[in-house]
Specification:
heterodimer; A: 430 residues; alpha/beta; Aspartate Aminotransferase, domain 1; Aspartate Aminotransferase, domain 2; 2 domains; B: 498 residues; 4-stranded antiparallel β-sheet; 35% helix; 12% strand
């Protein structure tokens, strides 16, 4: 090969690199065989405690849910996994049709007209939704319900530093009164603590003030609750991880973003559209690309290029396997277990659901002694912490149930809480 | 690639045949009421308050598991992928992704971790992230690393936000412009614009480097910084990179490194030693994580010490007692750029790859990538014109201007390569090269693949000389012929409707 190139060694090809900058030591340990690296990674993984190791009530945007065996078997096929962005549609119809189906399934779930091919994850999807509202209204103020997932709000605040947007965080109950001059109202339903919210009133208030309504939601909740489109929301945002994607300590995940037809030209990211080839055979292509960075550069609706396509395909496979019946079963099962759990824990002295609102599959629990988080953890039970920034719920525990929550899990946390409450009231004698 | 048969659709409810021929029915067309798998037990009780309950039916298709398995298996077979063939898509580093990396990421100790679990239950995950940060710092020559960014473009946005915070912390609030070479990826100007800045484009010189005179002309105390890709998108090492960085620094600006092309530099030169202030790394490219049909990627950001205070928070750190933790006490941080700490599943794969190759293997990978690109170039350069007559790094850009005059464009050549059994290279990028063909073979392909691809390119060139019309009809052996993209955009059909 060197001879064909006409050089004596690879070093002869490196002449453009400044000599004094060459050959730096990187400090990477010596290479390992596959067997060795497998053992090494297994040893590191063994230092973690997987969620499935005991009763698990931690949730929120990321949820421990049952993943059917066929989901990874299909979505992680090499033909999907080792392709890239479908720049050449004639040899990418698998990706393109699967993504188009994902868009269609998401529209059904959210009750909206258009869904894009994916954003990085829920928090950045919220930020991009807010940017859409800013573009569509020409206003620079975004009003966000304080009961929105704190990680999503943090991400939105970071993004807002780019175009210097004003972010106003108010309790959900005050949201409808703060629409004046806003690009959008951001409401989460079910909210971070699990409470159900009257989105219609908030959407109406937004529209009356010329603002848009962005609803942050969850895929499974949308199977049993009235979806964002039916509630008057213009945009829906969700973390798609619960749709068959491993929790995997924070990612890669799936940002879901859907909107009404009128907003499609403001949409960020890839969108797949239906078309046909020169023979008239149906096919799919990336479309409306004049919104995108590779065409419009600094005038694009977003800088996103690489997205989360394999996660979108995974979600499409999951939704196809579960269908409407399976989605309802998973959502209802989590909700039923959450209500059973709430009823069971309310029998423990000093414990009660920490708000008086309806909830679905997650609720805040007031405990008499605080700091029970660690006591539960010592018993191998993982729960969620209360809501930062919330005067009432900051000291609560937030408990999430899904279809994987068993009656034994409920007995275990009830027993552990009873012991912890009793122990807190009668401290062990020194 | 075998050519799948085109099927005529059968309408789901009536059984009537419709007019739309297709490669594979839609999920929705396969629907039969009442069909479902049995994955989750139906719940008898319904705790949803009536005021909140869904009124409209949930319009997902009802399918058996076998139907779903066949559907997605058929779809996958319509794809071209690294696992099925040579994929020399320039700028994307489509190298082989070892399967052991995927298996590592699926270990329950990694895959079954919730991001909000307490530190004592995630020591392995945090350790892996710390070690990865340390290795990336060593490879790039920088002081500190954030693993948060989800992709290269996300890292660009993060870094320009950090530049803004850095300048503002100095009371320097008058800087409005980000400078971007005319060869840059489209994400660069888009990221700068998302941060509220104006973009100034600076031209390339006759050797494919940034035109330093033009750069110096536009530099001033209103410049936030420069976004620099090195090797650049022409596959060329920026020959005067140190002078470029020095010129930007002289006016108080910062230099951002787009690390899309780090696959040419491992063990050869570190961006931190070349004068840059930070660089992002596309783990999915250089560190061999599968590109996932468009994503996920991961775009760790490596920075010099003066920028460290502005890195995204929370951060992952080694505690003094040898344990690992997450820290939020970074008052100058730009904040979270995503909900959690990073695309962990991608990080595990990249870590596994790095530990497999080791110091020597990574350096060898870069040298082999450069060797492969120069060899492939040597096979075709007398037939296709090289955009800039220089030794390339890990990729090169040809112009099909000559072929265009003969009657076939870069797009036609791309489609003809499909019929030859290959994935086309990147076309029409960078924008400064007419009829661009951007070819990146990567180090994982054997010589016989490079030769077969070169032979195909030469065959196509001969066809263009004699009968260019046949190339304009390509592809004929793909699942579909050319698609009507104009029609798709003019009358968008973006979802299924009954």
């Amino acid at each position: 090969m060197l001879e064909a190139i006409g050089v004596g060694s690879v070093d002869d090809l490196l002449g453009a690199i400044p000599r004094e900058a060459r050959g730096a030591v990187m400090g990477v340990p010596e290479g390992l065989t596959e067997a060795e690296v497998t053992a090494h990674l297994a040893a590191i993984a063994a230092q973690d405690r997987p969620a499935g190791a005991g009763p698990f009530f931690l949730g929120g945007p990321v949820q421990r849910r049952y993943i059917p065996a066929a989901v990874p078997a299909l979505a992680l096929r090499g033909e999907f996994l080792t392709a890239y962005t479908p720049y050449q549609p004639e040899v990418s119809q698998g990706t393109l049709q699967a993504i188009w189906e994902f868009q269609s399934l998401g529209c059904e779930l959210f009750g909206l007209d258009v869904a894009n091919a994916s954003m990085y994850e829920g928090g950045t999807a919220l930020a991009e939704a807010a940017f859409m509202a800013v573009r569509a209204t020409g206003r620079k103020k975004v009003v966000v319900a304080r009961e929105t997932f704190s990680q999503f709000r943090d991400t939105l605040r970071t993004y807002a530093k780019g175009p210097d947007l004003e972010i106003l965080e108010v309790p959900t109950a005050e949201l409808a009164q703060r629409a004046e001059g806003a690009a959008c109202l951001v409401v989460q339903h079910p909210d971070a603590a699990g409470g159900l919210v009257d989105v219609r009133t908030i959407a109406d208030a937004a529209h009356a003030a010329g603002a848009l309504c962005v609803q942050v939601t969850e895929p499974h909740a949308c199977a049993v609750l009235e979806p964002p489109g039916a509630l008057g929301a213009d945009l829906a945002v969700a973390e798609g991880q619960p749709l068959g994607i491993p929790m995997s300590f924070g990612g890669p995940y799936l940002g879901m973003l859907a909107c009404r037809e009128a907003l499609v030209r403001h949409m960020p990211g890839r969108i797949v559209g239906r078309t046909e080839d020169t023979r008239g055979v149906r096919g799919f292509v990336n479309t409306l690309q004049t919104r995108e960075q590779h065409i419009r550069r600094e005038k694009a609706t977003s800088n996103i290029c690489t997205n989360e396509a394999i996660a979108a395909i995974t979600a499409a496979v999951y939704l196809a396997l579960l269908g409407p019946r399976g989605m309802r079963a998973a959502a209802s099962r989590g909700a039923a277990q959450a209500h059973a759990l709430a009823a069971r824990l309310a029998r423990i002295p000093g414990c009660a659901v920490a708000f008086d609102r309806p909830f679905l599959d997650r609720f805040p629990l007031r405990t008499p002694a605080g700091a029970l988080y660690d006591a539960l953890l010592a018993d191998g039970i993982v729960v969620g912490l209360g809501l930062r920034d919330d005067p009432v719920l900051a000291d609560a525990l937030v408990l999430q149930c899904t279809e994987l929550t068993t009656d034994q899990d409920i007995d275990a946390i009830a027993g552990a809480l009873e012991r912890a409450v009793a122990g807190a009231r009668e401290p062990a004698r020194a | 690639m075998t050519q799948p048969s085109v099927r005529t659709q059968v309408a789901p409810d009536t059984g009537a045949r419709t007019e739309t021929p297709a490669l594979e029915p839609l999920l929705f067309e396969l629907h039969r009421e009442g069909r479902s798998g049995r994955h989750i037990r139906d719940e008898a009780s319904d705790p949803v308050p009536p005021d909140f309950a869904r009124q409209a039916p949930l319009g997902l298709p009802e399918l058996s598991e076998l139907q779903v398995v066949r559907h997605f298996t058929h779809l996958s077979q319509l794809n071209y992928a690294v696992d099925t063939g040579f994929y020399p898509l320039g700028s994307c580093t489509m190298k082989y992704n070892p399967k052991v990396n995927d298996r590592a990421a699926s270990l329950p100790g990694f895959a079954d971790l919730h991001p909000l679990q307490p530190d004592e239950t995630i020591q392995g995950a945090l350790r892996l992230m710390c070690e990865l940060q340390e290795m990336l710092a060593g490879i790039t020559g920088f002081a500190a690393v954030s693993l948060q960014p989800a992709a290269g473009a996300h890292a660009e946005f993060t870094a320009i936000l950090m530049f803004k915070a850095y300048h503002h912390a100095r009371g320097d609030t008058g800087r409005r412009r980000v400078i971007v070479p005319d060869s840059a990826h489209g994400t660069n100007p888009a990221s700068a614009a998302m941060c509220g800045f104006d973009v100034t484009t600076v031209r390339s010189d006759a050797r494919g480097n940034i035109d330093i005179a033009a750069l110096e002309d536009t530099l001033g105390d209103d410049v936030v910084g420069l976004m620099l890709t090195n090797p650049n998108t022409l596959g060329l090492f920026e020959e005067r990179v140190r002078e470029v960085c020095a010129a930007v620094h002289k006016v108080g600006g910062l230099v951002y490194g787009d690390g899309a092309n780090l696959n040419a530099l491992m063990g050869l030169a570190r961006p931190g030693d070349l004068g840059l202030d930070c660089v992002h790394i596309n783990l999915h490219k250089t560190f061999s994580t599968p590109h996932g049909a468009g994503g996920p990627g991961a775009g760790p950001l490596c920075v010099k010490a003066p920028l460290e205070p502005y890195l995204p928070s929370p951060r992952v750190r080694r505690n003094d007692d040898g344990t690992f933790g997450r820290s939020l006490d970074h008052p100058d941080s730009v904040g979270r750029v995503r909900s959690f700490l990073g695309s962990f599943g991608v990080l595990v794969r990249a870590y596994t790859y790095m530990r497999s190759l080791g110091e020597e293997g990574l350096a060898e990978a870069s040298r082999d990538a450069i060797l492969a690109a120069n060899y492939l170039l040597s096979r075709v350069r007398s037939t296709y014109q090289l955009a800039y007559e220089r030794t390339c790094m890990h990729e090169f850009v040809l112009t099909a201007a000559k072929q265009k005059k003969q009657g076939a464009s870069a797009l036609d050549i791309a489609k003809a390569l499909i019929d030859e059994g290959f994935h086309p290279p990147t076309v029409y990028f960078p924008l400064i090269v007419a009829e661009a063909l951007m070819i990146e073979p990567t180090e994982t392909e054997p010589k016989e693949t490079l030769d077969a691809f070169a032979d195909a390119l030469l065959r196509i060139a001969r066809r263009i000389e004699t009968e260019p019309g046949t190339v304009r009809d390509a592809p004929l052996r793909a699942p579909l012929r050319r698609l009507d993209e104009v029609g798709a955009a003019r009358r968008p059909v973006l979802r299924y409707r009954r």
